[in-house]
Write a structure and sequence with these properties.
The protein has 432 residues and is an alpha/beta fold. It has helices spanning 6-12, 23-29, 50-61, 92-106, 126-129, 134-140, 147-151, 154-160, 169-172, 174-189, 201-215, 254-262, 266-276, 281-293, 299-312, 315-329, 334-339, 342-348, 366-373, 380-388; strands at 18-19, 33-38, 65-70, 121-124, 191-197, 222-226, 239-240, 243-244, 354-357, 392-394, 397-398, 416-421, 425-431.
């Protein structure tokens, strides 16, 4: 057994909401198997999933055996917890594709492949549910839990009390299916603990109850949940104006991922650095103290952004993201600007004024580009004056002569020009 105590580790990190009596003692007694369910509705995890994944990571680091359960069967139904609407249902081919993609992401954080006794395992509940008939389920599982018991759960009560459009029988059975997962893993993998978010408590305890009713009161099964993560202002964590922050670079670039963590509030940074990094308590406390002494330096946010970007993407992608950030906010060079890929370039300059010119118009002077072809400057006179004062750059290189020719050679990625006026005013010109 590793020397770290899982429950104590999670407690100081603020990652325990509710823990069933006896769970801590079970984990201290022996290497224990626990599972956490992951919804496979997309072929990438997003940062909302990261809390659960970090819990599995700590579980493995503390010497225990984690199981990540892909909810293939339950993903075909939709979990009512915390939702007021029914979910779209998925077909099997989509589920299998999503499962493989999620496993690749999880493999960066969990050890699936070693021969250690606590190597992680990935399972899909579709594999044991797909051949069970409705009659089998109704007879063998449905009879064990009363409707009264199911109706008492908060996730069900809220929907029955008029939140959303009520609840279908399909969704009503969800907690029984999740309960059956726990029973199945208890019997086949000796899995004694289920981990999940606070909104899962009702579903998880249905599982512990089902195990007790099928196997007798000596069968010990436990639940541990973590708080739902919100922002300090109470709004939902992990959502931006453009939607989820994904772990897959196809959906959220490493630059945008890095920027998300860099821009969290001071209050949130203090919580997130405990939850989303593996830094030890001493390091985190000294970072918080350093941050409080000079909040404007954003020490916490910088370290948080570094730890997460390196963990989810790579050190190289982190360095590229820092370099891209310095284009807008630091003294980066023309070489750095040419080094970043087109997608990141467009994200860096998202929101700055943009102009489009014909490629055939290049060969003109810089002053014509800025005052005639675009409206970077309201007049040629103002452009010349600012160039003389040394306050204008093209692609991060100071313009010393307003009459200099702008050619296709100047284009970044064959189509962009970046004009900077003073320290903070940027303009992106696209030549098509």
């Amino acid at each position: 057994m590793a020397n770290k105590n899982f429950v104590e580790e999670l407690e100081w990190r603020g990652m325990i909401h509710t823990i069933m009596p006896g769970a801590k003692e079970q984990l201290e007694k022996e290497m224990t198997t626990a599972y956490l369910g992951i919804d496979p509705t997309a072929d990438s995890l997003h940062i909302g999933h990261l809390v659960g994944v970090m819990i599995l990571k700590h579980f493995q680091m503390c010497g225990h055996r984690p199981i990540a359960l892909i909810g293939g069967a339950t993903g075909m139904i939709g979990d009512p917890s915390g939702k007021s609407q029914e979910r779209n249902l998925l077909d099997e081919a989509t589920l299998r594709h999503n499962q493989e993609a999620i496993k690749r992401q999880l493999s960066k954080l969990l050890d699936f492949d070693s021969d250690a006794p606590n190597a992680a395992k990935l399972v899909n509940n579709y594999d044991w549910m797909k051949d069970m008939t409705f009659l089998d389920f109704a007879r063998n599982i449905g009879k064990l839990i009363t409707v009264n018991y199911m109706m008492a759960k908060d996730s069900v009560k809220k929907r029955f009390n008029g939140e959303g459009e009520g609840m279908s029988f399909t969704e009503f059975t969800y907690q029984l299916l999740q309960g059956y997962d726990f029973l199945h893993l208890y019997q086949t993998e000796n899995c004694k603990v289920q981990l999940g978010g606070a909104d899962q408590w009702g579903n998880i305890t249905t599982g512990t109850e089902l195990i007790r009713r099928v196997l007798g009161s000596e069968a010990e099964a436990f639940a541990i949940t973590c708080p739902l993560i919100t922002k300090a202002d109470g709004t939902k964590f992990g959502k931006t104006e453009s939607g989820n922050v994904w772990l897959d670079p196809r959906y959220t670039s490493p630059y945008k991922f890095y920027q998300f963590w860099l821009n969290v509030s001071d209050e949130d940074a203090k919580r997130y650095i405990r939850i989303f990094t593996l830094l030890d308590r001493e390091t985190i406390e000294s970072l918080i103290a350093e941050h409080e002494a000079a909040p404007h330096l954003r020490v916490l946010q910088r370290r948080l952004a570094e730890e997460l970007t390196v963990m989810i993407h790579s050190r190289e992608e982190y360095e590229k993201a820092v370099e891209a950030s310095s284009i807008l906010f630091g003294g980066s060079t023309s070489e750095a600007l040419r080094h970043i890929d087109e997608r990141t370039l467009l994200q860096v300059f998202e929101g700055v004024p943009q102009f489009t010119v014909a490629k055939s118009s290049l060969g003109c002077s810089f002053v014509d580009l800025c005052a005639d072809l675009t409206k970077v400057f309201p007049s040629k006179g103002e452009c010349r004056k600012m160039v003389q004062g040394g306050g204008v750059s093209l692609n991060k290189e100071r313009v010393t002569d307003a009459a200099r020719t702008v050619t296709e050679e100047d284009l970044i990625a064959g189509k962009y020009l970046v004009v900077q006026k003073g320290k903070k005013n940027y303009y992106l010109v696209t030549a098509e």
